[in-house]
Each structure stands twice: as C-alpha cells, then as structure tokens.
Amino acid sequence: MESPSELGEFLKSRRAALRPEDVGISPHPTRRRVTGLRREELATLAGVSITHYTRLEQGRALSASDAVLDAIARTLRLTDDEAAHLKDLARPAAASRPASPRVEHASTSARQLLAAMSEVPALVLDRRNDVLAWNRLGHALLASHLPATGPDAQGARPNVTRMLFLDEDYRELYTNWNEEAQLSVASLRLVAGRHPDDRRLAELVGQLTVQCDEFASRWARHPVRTCTSGVRQLRHPLVGTMDLSFENLVIPGSSGQRLIAYTAEPGSPSEAALRLLGSITAPEAQDAAATA
User: Fold this and answer.
1) What is the pLDDT of residue 58?
2) Residues 67 and 149 placed together within one structural domain of the fold
3) CATH number, domain containing residue 65
C-alpha cells in the first residue's frame, strides 16, 4: 500500500501547500505553472541537491540521512507527526515475505480489565481500528445498534473507521463529524506509513476509497496526525448529548493494540447522562423491560 509513489505524493502535497512568499521567495511576475513550491526551490531552501531531492520524490533514492529528511521537514514546515511519517515512507522496513493476516485477539487480562471498568465505557482496538473487545457500557455508548458479540465474530468485526464513514447510526453519534473524520483519516495514514505490508489495512483503505467518496477525498490529501487523548461530543439516541474525555492507552507489545476509555467531568450533565445510560442498559433493566 505504501509504495515509492506514496512518498512522492506526500511530498508533492506538502510542496503544494506552501506559497513561495511563505518561505521568503518573491513572486515572479510571470504566471507559475505549479501550485506551491517547485522542486528546485525546495531543494535550494533545504540545502539538498535537486538531483537527490528529485530521486527521493520519485522513490529512486536508496537511502536518505536524518539530516536530509530533517532539512526537508523543516523547509516544508512539517509537524512532528508529519516528519515522522516522512521518515517512515522514505526508509521503510526491509521487505520480507508477507505473512498471512493474523487474527488479533484481546488478551484475557485486557478483557478482565474491561469488565472491571463497569462505570467507564471502554474498548480494545487493534492498529487497524478493528474492535477486539468492549465492555457493556462501551457497547451501549458506541454501538448499541450492533450485536454485543460483534468483536468475537472473526471476519465481521466492527471497525470504528469503517463505521465512521459507512454506518449511518455510528456516524450520527458525532456532532462534530467532519473533525472526527479528518482525525480518523490522518491517524490511519500514520499507521499505514509504519506498516506498509499490512494486507488487511490495505484492504480496509481500498474498501473505504471505493465505497466512500468522502474518505477517498480526505485520504488523497495525505493528512497525518496522531491522537492520544481529547474530548468528543456524542449525541446518543437514548440519553442525549454528552461531552466525554477519552484516552488511548497503548497495551505493551508489538501488536499495536490499545484501550480507549471515556469519562465525563464529575458533577456534569454528561456524567449524569452516562450514569443514566448505564442504568437503562444494565441487564436487570433490560430483563425488566422484556417481561413488562
């Protein structure tokens, strides 16, 4: 999925985003034929030979030093996430025979932790954003329209990125959907750069690109950003609007799994709504409703 063309497209997108006057180049009186900086302008500003930079952008450079990549990143005014992504694309891990996609599982201890978090909505995701497990409140908050056993259905697990773009019920949860969609694509780009041989990740991107024009247009702009915490405003069909803080907690190991937990400010209306959601979706409440 992340081929030499990915590196070239990423660099071109960032060159196009910079105007010559942004970097101290006086506009030429004649009309420019390119948007943003030319290759030779970028190379000059970064102190890199135009030949070396061109080979890098075309994916023909066998290696690039930290000094060269850092100079290019500074000239393009890349963020820390974007600079890391540039290095991932420019120096991918040594190619090896692709392994058959391995089915991910949440560990027993991770499931026990989820169960113990009875008043905190939480779920475990893999690096592709497949849901490996969720606790009762996590399911009630984010995907009550789906079976609670969904994460155990191999080959048909919920995927929060796919749901965000293709599942209308899940999409409606987010009052700031555009912001959430942009962050979702940007974080997926970062993961894709780190794992260029991940077949299942490539299949996910391919599916979303074909089935959703909104995803395809965002993906084509090469956004890159990581997200470890923040606040999401959710519009839940049972309890209304809630402002919930979330934290991504990385599970030790090489799998890239993480636990996401949601909390509300103590004493806030959001906390009251979350408690209400917990009470009306509790097994005893559902049993009482079924027998009423």
Assistant:
1) 86
2) no
3) 1.10.260.40
Give the number of residues written for the chain.
292
In-domain check, residue 95: no
Range of the structural domain that residue 24 is part of:
4-90
Tokens linked to 278: 């917990």
Distance CA 133, CA 259 (A): 9
For 98-129, letters b (16+ CB in 10 Å) and e give: eeeeeebbbeeebbebbeebeebbbbbbbbbb
String of b and e for 259-272 (b: at least 16 CB within 10 Å)? bbbbbbeeeeebbe
Q: Calculate mean pLDDT across residues 256-264.
A: 95
In angstroms, the Cα distances linking 32 to 40, 46, 51, 271 are 14, 21, 21, 56
pLDDT tens-place string over residues 12-48 = 999 998 887 777 776 665 666 667 888 998 999 999 9
Answer yes or no: are the C-beta atoms of 81 and 190 closer than 8 Å.
Answer: yes
Q: Is residue 146 part of a domain?
A: yes
Query: Is the pLDDT at 2 greater than 50, yes or no?
Result: no
What element of type H or E holds 234?
Answer: strand 229-236
The winner for highest mean pLDDT among 89-98, 148-157, 255-264 is 255-264
In this prediction the pTM is 0.85
User: Which of 44, 61, 90 lies at the terminal end of a domain, its last residue?
Assistant: 90
Q: Is 148 exposed, middle or buried (0-12, 13-18, 19+ CB in 10 A)?
A: middle
- Grouping H, G, I as helix, E, B as strand and the rest as coil, residue 169 is helix
